[in-house]
Amino acid sequence: MISNMCWTPPPRTAAATGGKRIGWAEITLVEPEIGNAIEGNVMSVPEQIGAVVPDAPSSLSTSSSAASASPSSAAPRAGRWARRAIGAGAAWASTLALFALWALCTRSPAGTRALPSPGEVAAAFVAMCDEGVLWPSVRVSVLRVLAGLAVGVALAVPAGVVSGASRIGGAIVDRPVHMLRAIPFPALAPLLIVMLGIGEAMKVALIAIGAFALVYVNVRDGVRAIDPRLLELARAYRMPRHVVFTKILLRGVLPQFMTGLRFAITVSWIALVTCETVNSSAGIGYLLARAQQFFRTDQMVLCIVLYAALGLLSEWVVGALERLAHVRG
C-alpha cells in the first residue's frame, strides 16, 4: 500500500548554486525552515541565509497605510458624487431647455398664437387653486391610479408565475391576455360601462386591465428566464414550496417585475385620461375635458403638465423601490 509522502530535496549551498542568490520559489520549496518566507510576497533573500530581515516599526507602517488608504478611498467616493451630479444636471438641463424653447416660441402676443405661454399656464394654475378644484382632482386621479394598479398587479403576478412555470398554464392564460392587450381603451370603455356602470368600478377596472397586461408579460418572461438547474437543485434538496417561491422565483423575477411596473404606471395614467372623460365630476381628465369644452388652452396645457409631473414622480417612486429591493435582497 502506497502512502502519500512529500519529497523534499537536500538543502542547496551557495557553492552548489555558483554563489548566486536563491530566488523566492526555490526558498519556499527547498528550504522551508526560513521564517521570513511569506506566501504571496515576492522578495529576495540576503546572501547570508541565516540573516534576519528587520521588520519596520508598527507605528510607521500603520501611519503610512492610513495615509495611503485615505486618498484612495476618498477619490472613488468623490468620483461617484461627481458622476451623479453630472447625470442629474444633464437630466434637468434637457427639461429646462424644453421650457426655455416653449417660452421662446410663445413670446408673441396672445391673440396671434394658439399655444399659451408658461406665464399664462402659471396664472391658470393659481386661478384653479383659488377656485378649489385643482388639488381635489389631483387627489382623486392619484387614488384611481393606485387602486387600478394594485388590482392589476395583484392579478398579474400569480398569472405570470403560472404561465411561466407551466406549459399548460401558459396555454390557458397567455392567448387571452394577448388578445386583451390588443384592444384599445376607448373600445373597452363602453363595454365596461355596460358591465359595471359609470361609477368608480369602471374606471378602476379600465386602469387595472392596462396595468395587468404589462406586468403579466414581464413576470412570465422573468420566470421563464430562471435557470432550471436552480429548481432541480431545490427539488433534490426537497426545499419547501414557499422557500422556492420566495428565494428563487421572486428574486429571479424581481428585475423583470420592476420593468413591467414602470410601463404599467405609464399606461395607467394613459388609461386614466380615457376613463375620467366619461361621467366624471373630479379628476385631471375631467378638468381637461372641461377646458377643452370652453377652449381654455392654458388649462389644457396645465393638465398636460400635471400628467407629465405625476408620471415623473411615479418613475422616481418605482426607482426608489427598486433600489430598496436590491439593497435588501
Automatic annotation (TrEMBL):
Matching Gene3D superfamilies, A to Z? MetI-like
ABC transmembrane type-1 domain boundaries:
134-318
Q: What are the record keywords, sorted?
A: Cell membrane, Membrane, Transmembrane, Transmembrane helix, Transport
Instruction: Enumerate the Pfam families for this protein.
Output: BPD_transp_1
Q: Which InterPro entries match?
A: MetI-like, MetI-like_sf
Tell me if Membrane is a UniProt keyword of this record.
Answer: yes
Q: What is its main location?
A: membrane
Q: Name one GO biological process term.
A: transmembrane transport
Write down the membrane topology: Multi-pass membrane protein
Gene Ontology cellular component list: plasma membrane
Respond yes or no to whether keyword Iron-sulfur is given for this record: no
- Annotated TM spans: 85-104, 145-166, 178-198, 204-223, 269-289, 301-321
Protein's cellular compartments: Cell membrane
**Which PANTHER family has this protein been placed in?**
ALIPHATIC SULFONATES TRANSPORT PERMEASE PROTEIN SSUC-RELATED (PTHR30151:SF38), ALKANE SULFONATE ABC TRANSPORTER-RELATED, MEMBRANE SUBUNIT (PTHR30151)
Family listed: Belongs to the binding-protein-dependent transport system permease family.
Query: What is this protein's record name?
Result: Binding-protein-dependent transport system, inner membrane component
Q: Which organism is it from?
A: Bifidobacterium choerinum
